Amino acid sequence: MSEFYNGIAEILEVDESAINAGFDLHAGEAAWDSLAVVSVIALVDDCFNVMLNGQALTQCATVGDIEALVEAAKKA
Amino acid sequence: MVTTTKIVDIADYIPEGKLSNADLEILYPAWPAEKIFEKTGIRSRGIAGPDETAGDLAYAAATKLFDKGLVKPADVDFVILCTQAPDHVLPTTACILQDRLGIPTSAGALDVNLGCSGYVYGLSLAKGLIETGAARCILLLTADTYSKYIHPLDKSVRTLFGDGATATALTADDNGHGAIGPFVFGTDGSGAKHLIVPAGGFRRPIDETSGQEEKDASDNVRSANHLYMNGAEVMAFTLREVPRAMDALLSKAQLSVDDIDYFVLHQANRFMLDSLRKKLKIPVDRMPVFLEDVGNTVSSTIPLTLHSMLEQGRLTTTKRLMLIGFGVGLSWSACILTLQGNQK
User: Fold this and answer.
1) Which of B68, B170, B222, B262 is deepest in the core (most CB within 10 A)?
2) Nearest residue of A to residue B229, measured between CA atoms
């Protein structure tokens, strides 16, 4: 399990084995709200050393969408 | 003889009104009290009464400082008050405090409108006044009542901010022992909109439309008369600028991380402090946290933390500290503070 998936599982309050690219961000125990978005910004900065845009993150539907933002930010 | 600037004493004042996580849980059922504590590191916040202003909180902190006996009102020849909730649009709240506190009319007084970066800016002004010989004894006050700007149903900010005040006495030190500085500063006004009370100044006066309440995507309610914080943008700004400020200051002071005994950061909330500590690679015992019973008190967080360290006896021997303030503006600043340990 990657550090990133582990962190996502903690933020969404679900078991880390449930996390994969297709995981629905709104399916967790915790809401995909402003606090979760702030938490993911810090997590992504820690894991990948890139800064994501809060608005773009808010619009993500799955973990894969976040990973796509990370990939785009790495190339930017 | 080199004149430097030293902190003589610090006092605090937290208003008697309290807002606990249990109170908040009733308003925000999705956020149990324990979850609020886990995320923020805060259990309770001081809340000023309806008739209690930032000027009143600053007055109470200054009175406690004078009661401790190391500095008298008659010694003070300059008052600096950092607040974003002044008693009046005009006159300057610091002028009113000169009179209320019995400080001589020969003293200077001014307000500084800054938030979480304000204490470090205040120290830089105090140092400038003292080391140019313009003043000998500065009363540096921080006081804010953000609770008056916060909508009761906006959990994004109501869980974080508490009201409070501090008073710091600074004097010239002709022995050159205690020292404040060097400093680094930073400003990014392009981020002003991310932490703002949109209405109430002259850019947007308060009227019927400014009071219109709206619910955001996370179910928080506010109007343009209330405090708004874009948490994501503020987090991104902090993680970007604070490490840069720390590196710039270490290089300016020709010091390394290991030369600093304590890193006293603006106490925004536990989550942000933990993220910063990880990124800055600072050991947990060298980054004090003082939040649990007071919340984020804006410009008072750094002096409140220093005050608690003094009370705990963590500063009895000579210590070199790095102070870093960051927030609304967007504005940031950092300095080195060497405390001689002869302070209580």
Assistant:
1) B170
2) A34
Do B217 and A35 lie within an 8 Å CB cutoff?
no
Q: Is B21 a catalytic residue?
A: no
CATH of the domain at A58: 1.10.1200.10
Note whether B154 and B38 are within 8 A (CB).
no
Is A31 within 8 Å of B230 when comparing Cβ atoms?
Answer: no
Q: Tell me, yes or no, whether B129 and B186 share the same domain.
A: no
Select the residue from B24, B215, B218, B241 to test the A interface by mutation, using most A Cβ atoms within 10 A. B218
- Token pair recorded at residue A6: 């582990």
- Which pair of tokens denotes residue B319? 């210590």
Please report where in the chains the tokens 């303030």 appear, as a residue: B325
| Chain A residue at shortest CA distance from B217 | A33
CB–CB contact A41 B239 (8 Å): yes
CA-derived radius of gyration, chain B: 19
**pLDDT one digit per residue (tens) for chain B, 344 residues:** 688 999 999 999 999 999 999 999 999 888 899 999 999 999 999 999 999 999 999 999 999 999 999 999 999 999 999 999 999 999 999 999 999 999 999 999 999 999 999 999 999 999 999 999 999 999 999 999 999 999 999 999 999 999 999 999 999 998 766 699 999 999 999 999 999 999 999 999 999 999 999 999 888 999 999 999 999 999 999 999 999 999 999 999 999 999 999 999 999 999 999 999 999 999 999 999 999 999 999 999 999 999 999 999 999 999 999 999 999 999 999 999 999 875 44
Instruction: Please confirm, yes or no, whether B151 is among the known catalytic residues.
Output: no
- Name B331's bridge partners: B187, B327
Is there a cis peptide before residue B227, judged by omega within 30 degrees of 0? no
Domain membership of residue B192 as a residue range: 180-204+212-339
Compare CB distances from A41 to B30, B219, B232 and report the shortest one's residue. B232
Asked if B124 and B189 sit in the same domain, the reply is no
Q: Do A46 and B279 touch (CB under 8 A)?
A: yes
Active site residue B266: yes
Question: Rounded to whole angstroms, how far apart are CA atoms A57 and A70?
Answer: 10
Please tell me which of the candidates A31, A38, A46 has its beta carbon nearest to residue B232: A38
- Maximum Cα–Cα distance for chain A, whole Å? 33
* Residues B66 and B72: beta-carbon distance below 8 Å: yes
Query: Considering the entire predicted model, what is its pTM?
Result: 0.95
